[in-house]
Prior knowledge:
nucleotide-binding, ATP-binding
Amino acid sequence: TKLKQTVLEDMNREGKRRGLMSYEQVKAIEFIKEPFTIENGLLTPTFKARRYAVEKKYKELFQNIYKSVNA
Length: 71
């Protein structure tokens, strides 16, 4: 979508400005509508991401992103 493209371009422009190499730049992004909360198990009570829970919930999304970048 246009929003994703605009955000990605802004991130890469800022990365270049800060001296990141091309392999350090973000190649793809995805927006997730559901917020990370304690109630849905994606945050701890101290508001840290529960990495395993996030990875498990969005595994297919992450795989699709990697496939699109490496295609």
